[in-house]
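Re: that chain you flagged

S.,

Sorry for the slow reply, it's been a week of failed gels. I finally had a moment to sit down with the sequence you sent. For the record, here it is as I used it:
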Amino acid sequence: MDFTIGPTHPEHFDKLRAIELAAFETLRNAGAVTGEAGASSLEELSNFSRNGLLLTAYTSDSVPVGFVAGKVEGTWLHIAEIDVHPQWQRNGIGRLLMERILLTGQQRGLAGATLTTDKMVAFNARFYGTLGFNIVEGHAQPPHLVSLIAEEISKGFIPARRVAMWVTF
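Prediction finished late last night. Pasting the C-alpha coordinates below so you have them in one place:
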Protein backbone atom coordinates (compact mmCIF):
# COMPACT_ATOMS: atom_id res chain seq x y z
CA MET A 1 0.00 0.00 0.00
CA ASP A 2 1.16 3.49 -0.81
CA PHE A 3 0.50 6.04 1.95
CA THR A 4 1.82 9.45 2.77
CA ILE A 5 1.89 11.13 6.16
CA GLY A 6 1.44 14.87 6.26
CA PRO A 7 -0.21 17.81 7.95
CA THR A 8 -3.96 17.64 8.23
CA HIS A 9 -6.08 19.93 6.08
CA PRO A 10 -9.00 21.51 7.99
CA GLU A 11 -11.44 20.32 5.32
CA HIS A 12 -10.63 16.75 6.48
CA PHE A 13 -11.56 17.27 10.14
CA ASP A 14 -15.00 15.67 9.67
CA LYS A 15 -13.36 12.63 8.05
CA LEU A 16 -10.97 12.33 10.99
CA ARG A 17 -13.89 12.37 13.40
CA ALA A 18 -15.53 9.55 11.39
CA ILE A 19 -12.27 7.56 11.52
CA GLU A 20 -12.13 8.05 15.29
CA LEU A 21 -15.70 6.81 15.75
CA ALA A 22 -15.07 3.75 13.58
CA ALA A 23 -11.87 2.95 15.49
CA PHE A 24 -13.77 3.26 18.78
CA GLU A 25 -15.89 0.33 17.69
CA THR A 26 -12.73 -1.74 17.13
CA LEU A 27 -11.77 -1.01 20.74
CA ARG A 28 -15.29 -1.84 21.92
CA ASN A 29 -15.16 -5.19 20.12
CA ALA A 30 -11.82 -5.90 21.84
CA GLY A 31 -13.38 -5.17 25.26
CA ALA A 32 -11.25 -2.07 25.84
CA VAL A 33 -14.04 0.50 26.10
CA THR A 34 -17.67 0.73 27.09
CA GLY A 35 -20.17 3.50 26.79
CA GLU A 36 -21.02 5.87 24.02
CA ALA A 37 -18.52 6.47 21.24
CA GLY A 38 -17.05 9.93 21.09
CA ALA A 39 -14.75 11.83 18.78
CA SER A 40 -12.45 14.81 19.09
CA SER A 41 -14.24 18.10 18.65
CA LEU A 42 -13.53 20.36 15.70
CA GLU A 43 -11.98 22.80 18.18
CA GLU A 44 -9.64 20.12 19.56
CA LEU A 45 -8.59 19.08 16.07
CA SER A 46 -8.00 22.70 15.17
CA ASN A 47 -5.79 23.17 18.26
CA PHE A 48 -3.74 20.05 17.46
CA SER A 49 -3.36 21.25 13.89
CA ARG A 50 -2.44 24.82 14.84
CA ASN A 51 0.36 23.42 17.01
CA GLY A 52 1.65 21.25 14.16
CA LEU A 53 0.76 18.07 16.01
CA LEU A 54 -2.05 16.69 13.87
CA LEU A 55 -0.79 14.38 11.16
CA THR A 56 -2.88 12.38 8.72
CA ALA A 57 -2.21 9.26 6.69
CA TYR A 58 -3.46 9.72 3.13
CA THR A 59 -3.96 7.15 0.38
CA SER A 60 -2.38 7.83 -3.01
CA ASP A 61 -5.61 9.59 -4.01
CA SER A 62 -5.49 11.88 -0.91
CA VAL A 63 -8.17 10.12 1.14
CA PRO A 64 -7.53 10.30 4.91
CA VAL A 65 -7.41 6.81 6.47
CA GLY A 66 -5.78 7.52 9.85
CA PHE A 67 -4.40 10.26 12.04
CA VAL A 68 -2.38 11.02 15.14
CA ALA A 69 -2.91 14.03 17.39
CA GLY A 70 -0.56 15.32 20.03
CA LYS A 71 -0.07 18.20 22.40
CA VAL A 72 2.80 19.49 24.49
CA GLU A 73 2.44 18.90 28.23
CA GLY A 74 5.36 20.59 29.98
CA THR A 75 8.45 18.99 28.43
CA TRP A 76 6.52 16.03 27.02
CA LEU A 77 4.78 15.32 23.75
CA HIS A 78 1.50 13.69 24.75
CA ILE A 79 -0.12 11.46 22.15
CA ALA A 80 -3.75 12.41 22.65
CA GLU A 81 -5.26 10.26 19.90
CA ILE A 82 -4.23 7.86 17.19
CA ASP A 83 -6.73 6.10 14.97
CA VAL A 84 -6.70 4.17 11.73
CA HIS A 85 -9.97 3.35 10.02
CA PRO A 86 -10.75 -0.37 10.54
CA GLN A 87 -10.73 -0.99 6.78
CA TRP A 88 -7.12 0.21 6.64
CA GLN A 89 -5.72 -1.32 9.82
CA ARG A 90 -2.83 -3.82 9.74
CA ASN A 91 -1.04 -2.00 6.92
CA GLY A 92 1.61 -0.28 9.05
CA ILE A 93 -0.23 3.05 9.03
CA GLY A 94 -0.35 3.39 12.82
CA ARG A 95 3.40 2.73 13.05
CA LEU A 96 4.14 5.34 10.37
CA LEU A 97 1.96 7.91 12.13
CA MET A 98 3.64 7.26 15.49
CA GLU A 99 7.14 7.35 14.06
CA ARG A 100 6.45 10.69 12.40
CA ILE A 101 4.95 12.38 15.46
CA LEU A 102 7.72 11.03 17.69
CA LEU A 103 10.27 12.48 15.27
CA THR A 104 8.46 15.82 15.52
CA GLY A 105 8.75 15.69 19.32
CA GLN A 106 12.46 14.91 19.09
CA GLN A 107 13.02 17.76 16.65
CA ARG A 108 11.31 20.14 19.07
CA GLY A 109 13.71 19.14 21.84
CA LEU A 110 11.09 17.58 24.12
CA ALA A 111 12.07 15.10 26.84
CA GLY A 112 9.97 12.29 25.39
CA ALA A 113 6.42 11.23 24.67
CA THR A 114 3.57 9.96 26.81
CA LEU A 115 0.25 8.28 26.18
CA THR A 116 -2.51 6.36 27.90
CA THR A 117 -3.90 3.15 26.51
CA ASP A 118 -5.49 -0.23 27.12
CA LYS A 119 -2.93 -2.69 28.47
CA MET A 120 -4.71 -5.87 27.36
CA VAL A 121 -5.41 -5.30 23.66
CA ALA A 122 -2.48 -6.45 21.50
CA PHE A 123 -2.71 -3.46 19.17
CA ASN A 124 -2.35 -1.00 22.04
CA ALA A 125 0.19 -1.30 24.88
CA ARG A 126 2.17 -4.12 23.26
CA PHE A 127 2.29 -2.19 19.99
CA TYR A 128 3.54 0.95 21.74
CA GLY A 129 6.18 -1.19 23.45
CA THR A 130 7.63 -1.99 20.02
CA LEU A 131 8.13 1.76 19.58
CA GLY A 132 10.11 2.03 22.82
CA PHE A 133 7.29 2.99 25.21
CA ASN A 134 7.33 1.58 28.74
CA ILE A 135 4.61 1.50 31.37
CA VAL A 136 5.00 4.21 33.99
CA GLU A 137 3.18 3.92 37.30
CA GLY A 138 2.60 5.70 40.57
CA HIS A 139 4.72 8.68 41.55
CA ALA A 140 6.91 8.32 38.45
CA GLN A 141 4.01 9.47 36.25
CA PRO A 142 4.11 13.06 35.07
CA PRO A 143 1.07 14.91 36.53
CA HIS A 144 -0.73 15.14 33.18
CA LEU A 145 -0.91 11.32 32.99
CA VAL A 146 -2.50 10.99 36.42
CA SER A 147 -5.29 13.40 35.52
CA LEU A 148 -5.78 11.89 32.04
CA ILE A 149 -6.26 8.36 33.40
CA ALA A 150 -8.84 9.68 35.89
CA GLU A 151 -10.65 11.54 33.11
CA GLU A 152 -10.72 8.44 30.88
CA ILE A 153 -12.18 6.34 33.68
CA SER A 154 -14.90 8.94 34.23
CA LYS A 155 -15.77 8.58 30.52
CA GLY A 156 -16.33 4.83 30.82
CA PHE A 157 -12.92 3.31 30.26
CA ILE A 158 -12.31 0.24 32.44
CA PRO A 159 -9.86 1.16 35.25
CA ALA A 160 -8.12 -2.23 35.44
CA ARG A 161 -7.28 -1.99 31.74
CA ARG A 162 -5.85 1.56 31.62
CA VAL A 163 -2.14 2.18 31.67
CA ALA A 164 0.15 5.16 31.19
CA MET A 165 3.26 4.82 29.03
CA TRP A 166 6.27 6.92 28.13
CA VAL A 167 9.38 6.95 26.03
CA THR A 168 12.30 9.33 26.41
CA PHE A 169 14.09 10.86 23.44
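What I noticed first: The two ends are 29 Å apart (CA to CA).

Talk soon,
D.
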